[in-house]
Amino acid sequence: MFEGLSQKLEGALQSVTGQGRIDEVNVAETMREIRRALLNADVNYQVAKEFTANVKEAATGEDVLTSVTPGEQLTKIMHDELTRVLGGEHEGIEMAETPPTVILVAGLQGSGKTTFCAKLARHFRKEGHAPLLAASDVYRPAAVDQLKTLADQVNAPVYSIEDDGEIVEDAVRVANEAVTEAQNTARDIVIIDTAGRMHIDEAMMQEVEDIKTTVAPNETLFVVDSMTGQDAVNTAKEFNERIDYDGVVLSKLDGDTRGGAALSIRTVVNKPIKFASTGEKLDALTPFYPDRMAQRILGMGDVVSFVERAQEQYDEQEAERLQEKIRSEEFDLQDFYDQLQRIQKMGSIKELMGMIPGVGNKISDLDIDEEAFTHIEAIIQSMTPEERAHPDILNGTRRRRIARGSGNEVRDVNQLVSQFEEMKDMMKTMQKMTSKGQDVDISSLMDKITGGGGGQSRSPR
Ligand SMILES: Nc1nc2c(ncn2[C@@H]2O[C@H](COP(=O)(O)OP(=O)(O)O)[C@@H](O)[C@H]2O)c(=O)[nH]1
Ligand SMILES: [Mg+2]
Q1: Domain of residue 347, residue span
Q2: Where is the SRP54-type proteins GTP-binding domain (predicted)?
Q3: In the chain, pLDDT over 70 holds for what percent of residues?
């Protein structure tokens, strides 16, 4: 699975592995290789472009962790971006509050629908459910037989309508009656197998739509053959526009798929991939986990967790360093500025606050105006290193110079300096309180930092 892509991505990452650091030159070269690898794997052009742009941005903005190599760090960044492209969080099937849970399965002919229905029945049986299969592919007798044969192997009953041995060609009726049958026989899941055509056509779409309207399924799943690359993506798009399904099943991921469909579908149709089918055998079905798939593609699971650990360590060291500074009253404007920079990279002031021992998750529900910080940053930027380290030397002349340099008024500089002093005091007090196990009032500290009212926003001027 994805062997070609895996090899090429590894190759691209190799080129930064020997280098001491990630810089613009080697990142640009690596990004070109990565983009080429993705396009080669038949990934949608737009998706590939966005992917490399995101990786590049993350790579150049990242703190350099001394304990890992640039190659390792870039692997982690790639992993995170692959995970995002594949859908981020795993999404499963939501069960109906009142059984049965009805699952409608649609897709082109040969995509793997019937096989998937049987696999899904097996999957649910293993979880202790009692699924019923509905044979709504009524146009070929062989289709009903195929479903029955597969269902036998997984010990699940099939609902079909025959009249004198002849199959009744009414897909909607089969689906509808199957739901009633499930209610009468205490089956808690109904899986509806439908007919497909070689190509998208009106009659097929209409039929699926009719079934959907009549039985109102809890889930409509779209099965797509991963080996068909960008065609799969186009079909997925057309089906989605017509029947607005809830999730995608990637079938035949075991074949020599280049990976293009898997990596493009989520972005193009914005529906989660819920299962991957990886073989003709009925146990070859796996719930789809974007992060696991990303690790498989990169073939570097160890590296990913290694870098994660290094990152945590780095954060811990930073936190310790910061705490020590607060304790020894060495926390100066430069530290404050560095923290603001860090926050911007991490995207949240909450991270900084979370570093103060004992504060942790207390701030998770605080609404913070991050805009106010740009303003503060500009002022600190206009200070000399000496002024940052010793705010007490900030006399009138210096304050006027800083105000001019940062495009602010002297009173803004004054305000920042006094807020900073107050904040320092509060941080110390809070540290003392938390070390005694007392509760602290975070929102008043936030006031000290931003000069605003609690977590409310203060509009930047
Ligand atoms: N290698 C492989 N073959 C599959 C997979 N799923 C289905 N098939 C095969 O693809 C063919 C079509 O599958 P079927 O379930 O009948 O597709 P349907 O027409 O959509 O119902 C059959 O030969 C299946 O054995 C899979 O995940 N991997
Ligand atoms: Mg079929």
Answers
A1: 329-450
A2: 272-285
A3: 79
